[in-house]
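Example 3.2
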Amino acid sequence: MKSLQRQNEYVPREYESMPKVSVEIPPELFDDLDKHVGDDGKFVNRSDAVRKSIRKTLNLLHNIDKRRGRVNLEEMKTNRKQQTRMPTIY
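Structure, written as tokens:
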């Protein structure tokens, strides 16, 4: 198994107290995820990979909603300004 976190990695302050979530995924998806994690991978650790995946998916969903007129753009801007914490996925 690859290392989950790089040595002496800088962790931003806002990441120190993020809520944690536990998920169950099929072994083949887990193995595929691990191929992209670690020193030679695209992501520092599994949490980073899952966070970025969730962020990308939510952005896609917001764009679809915006195109279909299902999102109040002013409300979205207000919510983004008030957002101070992101959930951590482990």
